[in-house]
């Protein structure tokens, strides 16, 4: 889900219209399995796009994929990015910046490795940050992860 | 779950024997609902006890409690503390330090507000950090949270 370049904010500004192949909003994802978390601070090369604290969540199909290495259709991975408030030697969660989604459908999203990518601005199901720009805004950075199913994260117990 | 003083490490060193009323190891908690997370850095007053990145998880009963304000018997809240590796303007997760547990049983744990407290060192079900010391090692700091069911955390969407 993490990009190596910074096209994401540019895409955010675009807020593309909805198309037939659009990735659905991942209703209920907060009850899915929490995979891992990370804080990206000012000065990090991804800060402009992904600064804050992010949590990765996986639905049941994606959890199978983390374990088997094969993500089957229906697998959904969430990159839930919140502001990170650093103060008094602690980092606490702030408001939601974006809900990033990877949604597996090998046929529908064949052009982007079998994954549909979307970002819902501030978690708003009606504000799409990626739309038709998934190839450049998301997949370009995920492509080198081909051997891991185009996924950056790994499961930890 | 967060203490305001630092008895926890002292308790860690004790590794108390198991008693009949001991809090069970929370098998499967990594699939429970992720409530929130926080990083406690060097210099924070709780760093010696709780330094690192921690994630709070709740079982279904505890999720009801966060929403209703009433935690019923069977509610379990997990404080999963991992090392926080700060490098290159990012904070990533390291190895597990302790799995803290609050386990609701109003009768069994009446002396500590109806909650049983335990800490499993490095997540090892056989290494108990709290044992018979819950009143001083845990509850003393949770007591002021009485109006919130002795719980510090709150649910966020």
Can you describe this structure?
Two copies of one chain form a homodimer. Chain A has 157 residues and is of the alpha+beta class. Chain A has four helices and five strands; from the N terminus they run αβαβαβββα. In chain A, strands 1-2-3-4-5 form a five-stranded antiparallel β-sheet. The mean pLDDT of chain A is 91. Chain A binds chain B through residues 30-31, 33-34, 36-44, 47, 53, 55, 57, 88-93, 123, 156-157, and chain B through 30-31, 33-34, 36-44, 47, 53, 55, 57, 88-93, 123, 156-157. Strand 1 of chain A pairs antiparallel with strand 4 of chain B, so a sheet runs across the interface.
A few lines on this structure:
2 copies of one chain form a homodimer. The first copy, chain A, is built from 4 helices and 5 strands, in the order H-E-H-E-H-E-E-E-H.
- The rounded Rg of chain A comes to 15 Å
Average pLDDT level of chain A: 91
Q: Enumerate the spans of chain A where pLDDT stays under 50 for 5 or more consecutive residues.
A: none
First and last CA, distance of chain A = 20 Å
Number of strands of chain A: 5
Strand percentage of chain A: 25-35%
Major beta-sheet overview of chain A: 5 strands, antiparallel
Largest interface chains and counts: A-B, 26 and 26 residues
**What is the string of helix and strand elements of chain A?**
HEHEHEEEH
Briefly note the structural class of the backbone of chain A: alpha+beta
Which oligomeric state applies? homodimer
- Tell me, briefly, the overall form of chain A: globular
User: How is the largest sheet of chain A built, in terms of strand order?
Assistant: 1-2-3-4-5
Number of H/I helices of chain A = 4
> What is the helix content of chain A?
10-25%
